[in-house]
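Reminder to self: keep the SMILES exactly as supplied, no canonicalising. Ligand is adenosine-5'-triphosphate.
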Amino acid sequence: MRARLTGELMARCWRAERALTLLVLACMAVGTVAFAGLGLASKTVVDAAVEGDLRLLVLAAVVTAVAYVVDWVVDDVGFTMRMHVVERVAQTDVEPEVMRACTDVDEIDHLERTDFLDRITAVRGRAWAVVDSAWSVVEAAALVLRLALTVALLGSVSPWLLLLVPCAGVQLVLDAAGRRRSTAAEIATSEDQRLQRHLFELCTSPATSKEIRVAGAEDELVARQQATALGVVHARARALLTAAALSTAGWAVFAAGFTAALALVVRSAGQPGGSLGDVVLAVAVGSQLRSVVQQAVGRASDAGGYGRIVEPYLWLRAFAAERLAGQVATAAPPTALTEAITLEHLAFTYPGAARPAVDDVSVTIPAGTVVAVVGEYGSGKTTLVKLLTKLYRPDTGRITVDGTDLAEIGTPGWRAVTSAAFQDFGRYQTTFDEAVGLGDPARMASREAVDAAVAAADAGALRSRLPAAGASLLGSRFDGTELSEGQWQKVALARACMRTRPLLFVLDEPTASLDAPSEHEIFARYMERSRRLARDCGAVTVIVSHRFSTVAGADLILVMEHGRLVEHGTHPDLLARPGGGVYAELFGIQATAYADS
Ligand SMILES: Nc1ncnc2c1ncn2[C@@H]1O[C@H](COP(=O)(O)OP(=O)(O)OP(=O)(O)O)[C@@H](O)[C@H]1O
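Structure tokens returned for the bound complex:
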């Protein structure tokens, strides 16, 4: 798997930056040759000096100097170029791929699963490590070559020097044991690490710090962050100390072996066939061996670090591929609704939840209907509209659109005939007109389309008050104009009006952040728009609301309780139920509350 991934990533580097990739590979090859040449040239310098061969001495000295400089320069240039290639491929290739692993999956349930989120957190901002892992493998291959050359040179001086190889092996084994300990410590403390980050974010984010200040909980949270962080730091430091001790022991073994081998070489230098150059070569190649082993340890440590990112990356790819394979669409969405959207025994339970959020809901919503979904907090209203917009797959039951199972209709096609403004609307930090236009990317460049959507959501006054009207940047992240909650909601509502012929128009608590006059105005406008859409293409409008009074004019009201559809009908029907029903009771409570306030 790793080998295939390495090949694939190297091919991506090659496609993205052909010349630079070639340059980095060439640097590695030249570096390997220069590295081997360095020891041999040094030996020749000493031998030529001892024998008084001036020409050879100068030539060998020049070769030594050149080999030294070349080794250093290609290392430096290769590293800089490699980082450029890695960054480029990470940002323009791997990061978009990870984004697609999130967005190509039809539903959004994976974005709420901890196993998925943990992996996204691991990969976020670290795509470079995925790409660099491939380069590490290539570099490791070059190191093996260096090691082979070094061992051959050692053997050519004295077979005793080959004793250094097992000594280097001991160092590698001890170092790997130390690394395993620090990785284990990192894993064991990762939850606490996330907790301390969460506590930090709670106190520093504008959204959450308000409540914390008012409650006076900041000291408690800072103390908890400190205590948690200390626990993490101590556990990791203990593991690092153990790793350092193991590594030091490994180097001590290597140093002892090196000293013993050198003594043997020095002794044989005085005997026939031996030379001073051999001693120099032994010192040079011995320390080269140390440097190669050190680099190998470094690469192995990188590989361990990369493994923690490559594994989640591969998991995300496999997850997305599996889900995409299951997304088989056999039907196109209709161009107009003529019959109904029907819910048949629809049920859905969130992963890990104890009870269903939507439980055995059956109802027929005729084409051209404005339907209101009401109910108390957590009764399943939003989940119901998420099932209608294919953001979740029902566990059991089905939704049909003019008789066709929604599961068979391709999700992109269904979304192209759906418009929605959700309760937790997005705050796109771009220009006002773009934040609206994104409701229909195909028409976002059309000035008329954006103007019409702004007018439909009654957001014209808001736009004209902005410093540069529709060209004003929204949000404070990029130094734009910050909007109030209600203003952001108006932008979201305008965005939902970009499509001119949606067959399903969803408004989830569309006025939760708006004042009473705006709420009234918006509802009147949406009712009018919904009636027009119903005439044009039989569109169904679904309005989710807590406020019963505002949806009294809907053609059909669905009353949800604990995930179940407990009543449905028109406002007069529901009020007239014998003995009063849930709707009549809740409507009565709200009417009294508003009258008293
Ligand atoms: N992402 C989620 N993961 C797990 N459970 C969830 C999730 N979202 C909602 N729930 C649970 O599902 C149930 C229905 O939630 P839903 O948001 O559909 O209710 P709602 O009627 O729209 O509530 P509200 O009026 O507060 O918006 C609730 O019990 C809620 O706790």
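Points to follow up:
The chain is about 65% helix and 10% strand.
The chain has three domains: 2-321, 337-417+503-597, 425-500.
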